[in-house]
Design brief:
Length: about 350
């Protein structure tokens, strides 16, 4: 199928991918049965997904476990061939994995590493310089930039196996972006990192996006990554795109209420506050209430006239709450330190 020329950085039309899966019962008997009578079924991981990303856009790609996020990113990076539909990235057809295409993109998978374990990261960088044919001057400039933004000083010459998880992830990112790709596919780039390191990775991605005008498609269990970096989100569920729009519009979809935060000049008890909404927290002079979405102005007006209010703000519910509502049991709220397997 030929695609229309487009200025989009990523253009996906009716993309599908199914995997052939051979089920096997456990144990020796299961192995024999599978050998004699091999049963194959198709898993439709991605089903008719279409979207476009503009150059320079950062987009969050969300969905519960097994929704098809990694499969989509692998297709867009040319690691998997789609079963149907089409994809174009920076004008290239990913499945052809042309040299110019590979120099234009990067895929970072937080769960996988590309750095060589027994060597210092600097050695892996030099290999990438050769593989991507990065001119010396550009290599030095990029290294200087990354060393400054990521704080790599002092860790580049250490054996990778001796680095902390956070230090290693910084080096992984530097290695993956050394060739200055224009399109970044980031699959869980902050997984397992502590809060400070997550913030460092976010700052790096933001800075890279601003300096180089790169397009970024990002999956993360940590909603803070998405809210900090992306205005637009794509939500995929069971292989199908169920939402494409801005974060705010996604939170509007939730049936939950809005949050009113209060600062009071004179303390109010929880019982007094309960007359205005559901009390989430209160410590006398500050409080957080949940109020029904359609009654925000009326409740706020009552609060202002009924209590001695110094400050009042209205906020959308946290994105974690909305995702939990959308995906129920398949969705675990993203805390600061979820278990690595926890998903949206
Ligand atoms: N190589 C494979 N062979 C067979 N099935 C696969 C393979 N890779 C993925 N799948 C299945 O395809 C579906 C989508 O998987 P995928 O890894 O794309 O989801 P995901 O959204 O990235 O999930 P997670 O958030 O858990 O990483 C799942 O049902 C998964 O079991």
């Amino acid at each position: 199928m030929t695609s229309q020329p487009s200025s989009a950085a990523v253009q996906v039309q009716g993309l599908s991918k199914s995997y052939a899966v051979h089920d096997k019962e456990p144990g020796f008997v299961g192995s024999v049965k599978a050998f004699v009578n091999r049963k194959t079924r198709q898993v439709e991981a991605v089903r008719g997904v279409s979207f476009e990303l503009a150059p320079g856009e950062i987009v969050g790609f969300l969905g519960p476990n097994g929704a098809g996020k990694t499969t989509t990113l692998k297709i867009l990076s040319g690691l998997l061939h789609p079963s149907g539909g089409s994809a174009r990235v920076a004008g290239f057809e990913p499945r052809r994995r042309e040299r110019a295409f590979l120099k234009t993109i990067t895929l970072v998978m937080g769960q996988k590493q590309q750095l060589m374990w027994d060597l210092p990261a600097l050695d892996s960088f030099l290999i990438n310089q050769a593989v991507y044919e990065i001119p010396d001057q550009q290599y030095r400039a990029t290294m200087a930039e990354f060393t400054e933004v990521l704080g790599l000083e002092g860790i580049l010459k250490k054996q990778v196996r001796k680095l902390s998880l956070g230090e290693r992830m910084k080096c992984e990112l530097a290695a993956a972006l050394l060739h200055r790709p224009k399109v970044l596919f980031l699959d869980e780039p902050t997984i397992g990192l502590d809060v400070n390191m997550q913030e460092a990775v976010r700052a790096f991605v933001r800075e890279y996006n601003e300096r180089h005008g790169a397009t970024v498609m990002l999956t993360s269990h940590y909603m803070a990554d998405v809210t900090a970096l992306a205005q637009r989100v794509l939500v995929i569920d069971a292989g199908q795109l169920v939402f494409d729009g801005d974060l705010h519009a996604l939170t509007e979809r939730g049936s939950g209420g809005k949050t009113i935060r209060l600062q009071l000049r004179r303390p109010a008890t929880s019982d007094e506050l309960a007359a205005f909404g559901q009390v989430v927290s209160s410590d006398g002079l500050s409080a957080e209430l949940t109020v029904p979405r359609g009654e925000v102005s009326e409740r706020a007006a009552r609060l202002l006239s009924g209590l001695d209010v110094a400050d009042l703000t209205v906020e959308d519910p946290p994105i974690e709450t909305v995702m939990a509502e959308l995906f129920g049991a398949r969705s675990a709220p993203a805390s600061a330190h979820p278990a690595p397997e926890a998903a949206l």
